[in-house]
């Protein structure tokens, strides 16, 4: 059992190491921001992180896809191992900022803070490697640098490659521009929504735009489907349970004077209550069956992927909060009043191990919020070292409390 004194000594040493690394952590973030790679293309980012780990003398492995990194370190024989995860992919958005680290690509940028997540995790890795000899006995850790979070496929691929094998708990940070740098948001239980993508294919019989009576036109059927989904689905779910259905893509036709054979709708279902998405999907199916009869078309609904809600474990979250209280004042620990309706594939790891995701404030005092997924998104880099400290101190706290929490972790 690690002693409190061992843990406190290690925490202070790690804090000092991260303070020294502050400039390098900022540099990592700026390099990644200037050289973004979208989901499925994170090869150079992986190589960059692999070189960083190799220079630090750490053992790592790259998954079969050639993207992402898993680092294991600490005690060779340990009863428990705790992990932290960072996502590394960017978005296909043009960077409109005028900063020296602006994206050098014309159509992609880190607009969701994954460059910051990676830089903070890299800072934590470097500090843990530097302070290895002062870490508590039996302390073991894993760093997971994950690709393809934005396409919702990366976590599952990393899990298949062993990212959660032998893990007792896993933690992560997500930047939050609505909180000021120095603030940390937390929530017990659901932090994000279950998110399910759906595709509705409406097949009709196309023809000449001048003779619609000879066709079974899928276009008005698609328009009716959108209208009915938006108006009737909310009436089918409990009004006390947050539910959002959005259709973000409509595809059909190539010529203005040709009625197409097919129209495809693509959207998402987001719910907080477990199983809520099943109710919504069933109602959409009922709507489509009615449209089939009314418009003489054929409708099919497919769900390419589903991400469960991030549900923060009570014990792990309390351990992370205890670690955070040593770094910020009580007023800067901000309870998150309601779950986000956004999706986050960190939830897949939580199907295998308890965990917690905290929100890290990156806002600029007195300035407008630079929202996630906007083409002017940026962060207050003063938050980076704090984030790295939260990661390492949370691991220490989980390790120290492992015996006390024997029945929960």
Description:
- There is one protein chain.
- The chain has 409 residues and is an alpha+beta fold.
- The chain folds into two domains: 280 residues, Aminopeptidase (3-Layer(aba) Sandwich); 113 residues, 2-Layer Sandwich (Alpha-Beta Plaits), CATH 3.30.70.360.
- Helices cover 33% and strands 23% of the residues.
- The chain has eight helices and 17 strands.
- It has an eight-stranded mixed β-sheet, sandwiched between helices. Strands 8, 10, 12, 13 and 14 form a five-stranded antiparallel β-sheet that branches. Strands 7-15 form a two-stranded antiparallel sheet.
- Strand 1 and strand 2 form a beta hairpin.
Concise overview:
This protein has 409 residues and is α+β, with helices and mostly antiparallel strands. 33% of the residues lie in helices and 23% in strands.
Topology:
Elements: H1 4-34, H2 43-55, E1 59-61, E2 69-74, E3 82-87, H3 114-130, E4 140-146, H4 154-160, E5 169-180, E6 184-186, E7 189-190, E8 194-203, E9 207-208, H5 218-232, E10 243-251, E11 258-259, E12 262-271, H6 276-295, E13 298-302, E14 306-307, E15 311-312, H7 314-325, E16 333-335, E17 355-363, H8 383-400
Parallel strand pairs: 3-4, 3-5, 5-17, 6-16
Antiparallel strand pairs: 1-2, 2-4, 6-17, 7-15, 8-12, 8-13, 8-14, 9-11, 10-12
Helix pairs in contact: 1-3, 1-8, 3-8, 5-6, 7-8
């Amino acid at each position: 059992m690690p002693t409190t004194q061992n843990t406190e000594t290690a925490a202070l040493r790690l804090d000092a190491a991260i303070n020294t690394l502050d400039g390098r952590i900022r540099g990592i973030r700026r390099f990644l921001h200037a050289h973004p790679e979208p989901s499925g293309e994170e090869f150079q980012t992986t190589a960059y992180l692999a070189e960083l780990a190799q220079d630090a003398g750490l053992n790592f492995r790259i998954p079969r896809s050639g993207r992402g990194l898993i680092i294991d370190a600490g005690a060779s024989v340990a009863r428990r191992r705790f992990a932290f995860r960072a996502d590394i992919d960017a978005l296909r958005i043009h960077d409109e900022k005028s900063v020296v680290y602006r994206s050098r690509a014309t159509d992609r940028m880190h607009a969701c803070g994954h460059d910051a997540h990676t830089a903070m995790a890299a800072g934590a890795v470097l500090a843990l490697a530097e302070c290895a000899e002062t870490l508590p006995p039996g302390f073991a850790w894993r760093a997971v640098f994950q690709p393809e979070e934005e396409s919702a496929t990366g976590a599952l691929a990393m899990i298949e490659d062993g990212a959660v094998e032998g893990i007792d708990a896993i933690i992560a940070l997500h930047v939050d521009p609505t909180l000021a740098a120095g603030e940390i948001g937390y929530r017990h239980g659901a932090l994000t929504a279950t998110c399910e993508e759906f595709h509705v294919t409406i097949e009709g019989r196309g023809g000449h735009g001048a003779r619609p009576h000879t066709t079974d036109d899928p276009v008005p059927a698609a328009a009716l489907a959108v209208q009915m989904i938006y108006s009737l689905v909310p009436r089918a779910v409990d009004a006390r349970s947050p539910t959002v259905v959005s259709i973000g893509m409509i595809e059909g036709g190539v010529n203005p004077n040709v009625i197409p054979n097919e129209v495809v709708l693509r959207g998402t279902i987001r719910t907080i209550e477990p199983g809520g998405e099943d109710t919504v999907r069933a109602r959409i199916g009922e709507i489509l069956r009615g449209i089939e009869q009314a418009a003489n078309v054929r409708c099919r609904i497919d769900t390419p992927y589903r991400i469960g809600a991030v549900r923060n474990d009570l014990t792990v979250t309390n351990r992370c909060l205890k670690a955070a209280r040593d770094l910020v004042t009580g007023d800067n620990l901000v309870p998150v009043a309601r779950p986000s309706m956004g999706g986050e594939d960190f939830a897949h790891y939580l199907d295998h191990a308890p965990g917690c995701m905290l929100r890290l404030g990156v806002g600029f005092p007195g300035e407008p919020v630079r929202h996630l997924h906007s083409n002017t998104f940026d962060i207050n880099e003063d938050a980076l070292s704090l984030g790295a400290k939260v990661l390492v101190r949370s691991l220490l706290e989980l390790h120290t409390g492992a015996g006390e929490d024997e029945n929960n972790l």
